[in-house]
Fold each of these.
Amino acid sequence: DGKGSTAIRYAAKYALGLSRQASFQGADADTKNQHGYTALHWASLKGHIDCVERLLGAKVKIKSLNNKGQTPEKLAKENKHINIVTLLRTWRPKKVDFYKIYPLLE
């Protein structure tokens, strides 16, 4: 829209289903609206842990700042979404074992 919102941000803000195939196809989940909010900011603010997990899986920037200097973690904490705060603090991307995917490389 004219304010810089994307379909991904709307989905995160309103807890709309993000399908596995279409979630981020051709879209940048780190884009910001006019206030500097990313999809992760909205999902964290609103307490939508399933969206937060999906966004983290897409390797979005966890420490992104909005125009007020707030991270997604800070927004989750201010709104008492402790499960999201914990997730954001402890998140580690999964390592891929290429030898399991491509056994001939061994």
Note: DSSP finds six helices and no strands in the chain.
Amino acid sequence: LARAFLSKPSILVLENPSENMGNLNRHRFLSVMEEICSATERTLLVSTDDWPLAYKFCPRWIVMTEGTISFDGSPENYLKSGDDLAQQIKKLMDRNQIVEEVLGKTI
């Protein structure tokens, strides 16, 4: 990661950046990455299947279906769409929110 910053790229690409991290560390890591990219005027591009995390940290979603861009916009607009995957993600996120409220911690 340090090497990536040394070359001063305008876009930093992270593929499944939180794959092997615990919940708290995932959020800390992406918060720090977000702060660094904002402070250095870099774009942060995250490829992930962690939908709740993407919802929290990514203001723009580009969803690909069978190699084609099927959606480009805000997470809110995607979850309102009639897309089958969007409905599954919404259910998953609703369940996570309930668990977070019961446990009092972020998933």
Note: The CA atoms of residues 50 and 107 lie 11 Å apart.
Amino acid sequence: FIYFSETEVKSIFRQISQHFKHSFIAFNTLNKYLVKKKHPSIDPDKAPFKWGIRSVGEIEDWELGWKQFQTFYPLDYYKSRWKWVRMTRFIPSFKKGLTISLMQTVS
């Protein structure tokens, strides 16, 4: 969802909850701060990051019928992939900067 605007992301959540009762959705999130940062491997003209959140609770606050089911922090997994970057998991703002979230509709 990081490539969509917040309005577009809200619309996606609204549409899914209206048409698929008792559903789950899994997605990656970036912290709002990281959305604004430029990364050398990403061309902002071709694939700009547009949406980020501080926590999944922000989506619950939209009152579109979703609640957090589970959240994973990639820095806690795949030790060989992250190498030294994995050490940043001890800093909460870095650890929570990239998440994999699972949410479910509330009936």
Note: The helical segments are 6-19, 32-36, 57-61, 79-82, 92-95.
